Predict the structure.
Amino acid sequence: MSFLVYFALLLIIPIVASSRVKKAYNKYSKIRNSADMTGAEVARKILDENGLFDVRVEEVKGQLSDHYDPRSKTVRLSSDNFHKPSVAGAAIAAHEVGHAIQDAEDYSFLKFRSALVPVATFGSNASFFFIIAGILFTWQNLLLVGIVFMAAAVLFQLVTLPVEFNASSRAMGQLVSTGVIRNNEERETKKVLDAAAMTYVAGALVALLELARFVFMFIGMNDD
């Protein structure tokens, strides 16, 4: 029964988080922001206000594929957010610009997360091979190596949390100070940003649950 509950949680947590994001985005992508500015215009305005004239704003295919690329110094916004003057588009554009500001200011958690990328990528890809082999052959050392690799990937997700929450906080501050949003739009914008942040929380929680399961499995092997 406990295993059923565990696997149910692994499935339900991401689904609920994803559903919240889609619900908030679908609602507020249909509401125009009072400044009547597209996401691209919002991003450019905030970047210029912060002296980040060298950071480009580009359109990228897909829905909610928005991101900031620190290597090319580019804010990329999905088509709807790039072209439409919605509350959701302004919120997401400001959030991605928040990452650009973090990058310009050498925000410590962003630097740490960037340094973890190669280790976390390798750990995420390799961990299950070692874990499965360790379980199949009852080889504790292989299982332990897999757990260490998985822990690196989990650490990356945990470090991502302060990075994302800080970017959202910066986004709210910038949207208000530049006059892009006013009055009740602050509450609406916060709903979009909070829903998006929950996907990172859900991802980190699921990763921690998975890591804990294999740690307990390793402890059980030692007890045997």
